[in-house]
Fold this sequence. Notes:
The structure is a single chain. It is built from 15 helices and 20 strands. 54% of the residues are buried. By secondary structure, the protein is an alpha/beta fold.
Amino acid sequence: MEACAAEPLLGDAERRIMQMGEMERDVVGGAPLRSRLGWSRALLLVPPLLLVGFVTTLLLSSQGVPPPPQHPSHSPHEPSFEVPSFVYRPKYACAICADIVSAEPLLNAGEHACSVFGACESINASTRSCREFCPDLAEQATMPSPVDIAPTLGLRVSKALGSKPYKLLRVSVVTRDDRDTSTPLLGAKRFDYSAPFRFRWTENSLHSSLVRVVPGETTTLDVGGVPVRLSLPHSGEGAAGIMIADTCVSYASLTALVTCTYGVKYELARRLPALLDAFMSGGNASSDPSSELSFWGMLGDNLYDRTGEVSSSFFDSLSLAVKSKPLLTVLGNHDYWILGTPRAATKWDQFGNGFMQFYAQDSYAASELQPGSPEAPFDFSSDPDHGRAHNNPFGGQKVSLPNTFFFNQIGNSGFIGFSGAYPIVETLPLLRDACAALAQTPGVDIVWLLGHWDMENLGCKAHMDVPTYYEIAATLPGCREFAERSALKFIMGHTHCNTPHPHGNVDTGFMVAGQGVEGCGNFGIPIVDTTEEMARIWYFPVVYDPTDLPALIEQRYQTLLSCVGAEGWRGCTHLAKLWLNQSLPSTRS
């Protein structure tokens, strides 16, 4: 599949949007999405009023008059549960088999679930067991087992939305009904918001509050009886953090619905948590501020998890040093639909609902909330099963857009996080708002655009892949000025490689998705670093390609782990490749 071409001019993007409407493209060949089954219909075009608003926004921009922020309606679109046919791929065989076996009894006479997945030659109504289609449990037996991972505090920390005071963090705890018998407290008080998950992953509950910290100092809070050390660099101070995407690990006794080829081969369930812990807490980080990492990011397709079991096990395996740092995360295609595309969505998918509550970002959905607000920090207006007929297991509704978009600041870096699964005409007002706000925020020297899709496919709407979205952002007031001084960058996942300058975006775009799924087969730890008036991205490789011998991989892993543990990551940059090395003049006079 080819990446879609980046649009240098917003006017060109507007013209193409108006020509295309909002018709998605087929996974294979770029053909318009149309019904291939008798019970399917074509997707709706963009409502004309949205196009009028989009054109009005462009005209105002061309006259140098930024319009006021226009927040999209929170009301869900009309439900659609009709799914065109899907191109069968063996790596999804386990999930496809599970859905076929579950869906077949719900269908009307003459309807066959296997036709939705293009799988009738391999998996059909006669299939009674999915064992032969699921990962080899003998191979997975070498992986850690969830029962051997001690439950730890389900801590989540995220940066407050950029429209709120800099000193605010959102501190959350995820609990599980089957093991947590009491509601955790924040100090001696209850969390501002405390409720079971809604719609998906409902065996969990979320407890969340906005808390104030003192930038430049350590703030210690009692969270569920555990002392948690929170820190945030001064506004305008250089900061560094880890960025990864498409993380895939496997655990013994947990059936992986998506084949995690390199996650198993490279033993990432063991190695990745150990590396994250070493980078966050190793060496002289406590005495040398330049060695401290201030944040970390997961840029979509987080753990390829439909049910929440893998996510819970992975976060249980992370140290408190990792979980106490602000996490920046965005949704990828597999965070909506386990098979990676709305063309194969079923009622068992999470549609982003598990994700948004499990990771508890302070998004636009929480824009009106302040410390002490008891309301949910989410927009629950989009029920994934609203309007679903009892005999239709296919399709469903995504979480509402405001849950998936944020902007904020950590140190001298501004961040804009978004999902490519929504129409450009709906996300553009939020992007315009974020660009304008960050340009006026004291201390922001550089802006990082964080997204998932590197190309327009698999549920990504037109012009919503990260390289094209970057080109649009670079024309908007605020972001345009950052781009003109080479201080607007983007980081993404989706294509499973760790590589600088994908699609030719030299010193501008970076891909960090070599984290366990089939693809390039590399693996390593990328670090974004804006200290010392420089913008740098360090990449610490562990696996160069799948031909690396296991003994060589283990040697590199142990060398890196030992060095970072003893010296801190900055003392081990001789083991890293420098993807970006650019001066970063301060925006302050």
